[in-house]
């Protein structure tokens, strides 16, 4: 049974940082691409970042230079380091594995003074 569990969200002031984690189980984590998505209130879910099995990385333009995706295959975990956060980054952030069509429960990130 595939399971993705996000953690690390919270309330942070503009300009602050957060590190999200997604612990995966139930599949061969190292063999698969992993993704982060987010959904802001009243908006559709949008793709944020991806890291493939070879650690090739891509980002949506809105987060380039501020967010960093990484993975630790020994811990079956993918991370999203978020720096220079802006109010428009406020959203529920989801971990995703497209190959198994699996999603985590999401973790809330709120950027506000």
What does the largest sheet look like? 7 strands, mixed
Radius of gyration using CA atoms only:
13 Å
SSE pattern, N- to C-terminal: EEEEEEEEEEE
Instruction: Please tally the β strands and state the result.
Output: 11
Poorly predicted runs:
none
Shape category: globular
Kindly describe this structure.
It is a single chain. This protein is mainly β and 113 residues long. It has strands at 3-7, 10-12, 18-25, 34-39, 46-51, 57-59, 67-72, 77-82, 91-97, 102-103, 107-111. A hairpin with a 4-residue loop joins strand 9 and strand 10. It is globular and about 40 Å long. The model has no long low-confidence stretch (mean pLDDT 96).
Fold blueprint:
Layout: E1 3-7, E2 10-12, E3 18-25, E4 34-39, E5 46-51, E6 57-59, E7 67-72, E8 77-82, E9 91-97, E10 102-103, E11 107-111
Parallel strand pairs: 2-11
Antiparallel strand pairs: 1-3, 3-8, 4-5, 4-9, 5-6, 7-8, 9-10, 9-11
List keywords for this structure.
113 residues, mainly beta, 11 strands, 0% helix, 4-stranded antiparallel β-sheet, globular
Short description:
The protein is globular.
């Amino acid at each position: 049974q595939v399971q993705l569990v996000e953690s690390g969200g919270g309330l942070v002031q503009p300009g602050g940082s957060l590190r999200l984690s997604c612990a995966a189980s139930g599949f061969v984590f190292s063999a698969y691409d992993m993704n982060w998505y987010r959904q802001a209130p009243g908006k559709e879910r949008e793709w944020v970042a991806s890291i493939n099995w070879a650690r090739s990385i891509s980002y949506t333009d809105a987060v380039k230079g501020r967010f960093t995706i990484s993975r630790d295959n020994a811990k079956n975990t993918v991370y999203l380091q978020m720096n220079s956060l802006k109010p428009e980054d406020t959203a529920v952030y989801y971990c995703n594995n497209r190959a198994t069509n699996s999603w985590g429960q999401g973790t809330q990130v709120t950027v506000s003074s």
